[in-house]
Design brief:
The complex is a heterodimer of chains A (303) and B (244). With 303 residues, chain A is mostly helical. Chain A contains eleven helices and four strands. In chain A, the strands form two sheets. Chain A has a two-stranded antiparallel sheet with strand order 1-4. In chain A, α3 crosses α8, α6 packs antiparallel against α7 and α9 packs across α10. Classes of the chains: A mainly alpha (303), B alpha/beta (244).
């Protein structure tokens, strides 16, 4: 995973400024024109600049400073789910409704200082998958049986409306989910789901997935390089067959790692739940977000 | 003579597949010692280390930690007293941020949040990674991850440290940093290593195991001087540093 290291002035090091309090403290710094904020832990300030690094790419967006980033993850998760529920439950969206929802979500992205092109691009990744499903709607409309004639035939109108409903709803839901994941750092997001009583097993699963997916990707890459080094001119078909064996190999390694990680967890007193240190607090702004989004979702669903 | 930390008598360990990894180990480690556990690959070093905090249990034989026999009742306390650092830091760093990883042990010990926070700070400063607290482990370099793995255990403030290959795969500078870090820690230490120079530099006592048995146990100087012994067990004398 890529990262960037950079130094920035520490507010506590400036004469007259408040010294940073020990413990977690957040302060803002500018990085390539973007204002970032995330927790720091350095009670002893060693100079005017301190070095730190963080992820680049999509993950970088979660460190931006905005009112939306500041909200409690629970409020954002609840709002996102309510909005998606409203969108899913409504009859096929009229252009005005669709426009209203897009405006709402994109204003969110603007408030969060997210690059719109990235947000729209990510949301559109859902379209090819949704389109495959959506295509069945007009095909299935032709007299109750699957027929390609449904695309252009006499009964195709209703089918196309259903297809539009599937596509627009999938895209709006993806847009809402991306707004959530781009404004909430993953540890905070997981913490939010945990506080919303999502079962420990799922929380542990998601935490470990986010931690180890990179490790396994590196291992797979190493296996592929080893294969290429010893069989540079292997026919494509045989290569694909070998990938099955690579997957098996990777599974065994994952199993072994699971045992070692479990031993490491036991060694530090693991009792069944992952303890996290961050405490969440709901503010009036969080309540406002939930109420606003709930009303919007209800209006869209019921109107 | 100081009080014993680990007392092993005739410890055997048989894995479920029938492999006998430990074949009657007798070993006593005392408070304040720094013991190097030497031996070829597959000698049983890692298996022995996993016995020291009760992750693995002896199939036969007796073992006690700080005078208390290792049982299901005492194992929780033993794990808080014996800090275990694994060879692969990716096994040790399993949480989503470094802070959460270092806080994992203290939180499981049931400490209050401000005490946890204080300990995480101290541990991260000890290993020089305070600035990286909010980062996920995958954003740390390998050398940083090795030191972070030590911090996850230091935050539990254990009087005994058990380390598996603390310098493996480190570049010379990261290795030097690790040696400096370990030297500064006052805890009783048992470390398994192939890094003979590290053993010679840090440890006062060497225990050589091979085939699941202790084949030599004595002052570091004496073991290092016994070229025939080292040769017989797949080890070699620490090569003299050029110019030293």
């Amino acid at each position: 995973m890529s990262e960037s290291a950079h130094g920035h002035p520490h507010p506590g090091a400036q004469p007259g400024a408040d010294a940073p309090s020990p413990g977690i403290h957040r302060h803002e710094h500018e990085h390539q024109g973007e204002l970032h904020r995330h927790p720091h832990h350095h009670p002893e300030v060693r100079g005017p600049v301190h070095e730190h690094a963080h992820g680049t790419g999509f993950e970088r967006l979660t460190y931006l400073v905005s009112p939306l980033h500041d909200l409690d993850p629970r409020a954002k998760i609840a709002s996102t789910l309510v909005l998606i529920l409203g969108v899913v439950l409504t009859p096929p969206l009229r252009p005005l409704e669709f426009g209203l929802l897009v405006t709402l979500l994109l204003s969110g992205a603007v408030i969060a200082r997210l690059p719109l092109r990235t947000v729209l691009g990510r949301a559109s990744l859902v379209l090819p998958i949704a389109a495959t499903i959506a295509l069945f709607a007009p095909i299935a409309r032709h007299g109750g049986s699957l027929s390609i004639g449904g695309i252009t035939g006499a009964y195709s109108g209703g089918g196309w409306v259903a297809a539009w409903a599937i596509l627009s709803k999938a895209w709006l839901s993806a847009l809402a989910a991306i707004l959530l994941s781009a404004t909430t750092p993953l540890p905070r997001l997981i913490r939010g789901f945990e506080a919303l009583r999502v079962p420990d097993v799922l929380i542990t699963l998601v935490s470990f997935l986010s931690r180890y997916v990179g490790v396994f990707r590196d291992q797979l890459q190493a296996l592929r390089v080893a294969l290429d080094s010893r069989a540079p001119s292997m026919p494509r078909l045989r290569r694909w067959r070998l990938f099955g064996q690579l997957a098996g190999n990777l599974f065994v390694r994952a199993y072994d790692r699971g045992e070692r990680v479990h031993a490491a967890m036991l060694s530090r007193g693991f009792t069944g739940t992952l303890p996290t240190a961050e405490v969440l607090r709901l503010t009036p702004a969080d309540a406002l977000l939930i109420v606003t989004v709930a009303l919007t979702a209800a209006a869209v669903a019921l109107y | 003579m100081s009080a014993p930390v680990f007392e092993l008598a005739g410890v055997r360990h048989r894995y479920p597949d029938g492999t006998v990894a430990l074949d009657g180990v007798d070993l006593t480690v005392r408070v304040g010692e720094t013991v190097a556990l030497l031996g070829p690959n597959g000698a049983g070093k890692s298996t022995l280390l996993l016995h020291l905090n009760g992750v693995l249990r002896a199939s036969e034989g007796a073992m006690s930690v700080e005078g208390v026999p290792l049982t299901d009742e005492s194992v929780g306390r033993v794990r808080a007293r014996v800090g275990m650092v694994f060879q692969d830091p990716d096994d040790q760093l399993f949480m989503t941020t470094l802070y959460d990883d270092v806080a994992f042990g203290p939180l499981n010990m049931g400490l209050a949040r401000d005490e946890v926070d204080r300990r995480v700070h101290r541990a991260l400063h000890q290993v020089g990674l305070a600035d990286a607290a909010s980062r996920p482990a995958q954003h740390l370099s390998f050398g940083q991850r090795k030191r972070a793995a030590v911090a996850t255990v230091l935050s539990m403030e254990p009087p005994v440290l058990v380390l598996d290959e603390p310098t493996s795969n480190l570049d010379p500078r990261a290795r030097r940093e690790m040696i400096g870090l370990l030297r500064a820690l006052p805890a009783t230490k048992v470390l398994a290593t192939h890094d003979m120079a590290l053993a010679a530099e840090l440890c006062t006592r060497a225990v050589v195991i091979d085939g699941g048995r202790v084949v030599a146990d004595g002052p570091m100087d004496a073991v290092m001087a016994d070229a025939a012994l080292l040769e017989a067990h797949g080890l070699e004398v620490a090569t003299a540093t050029i110019g030293a």
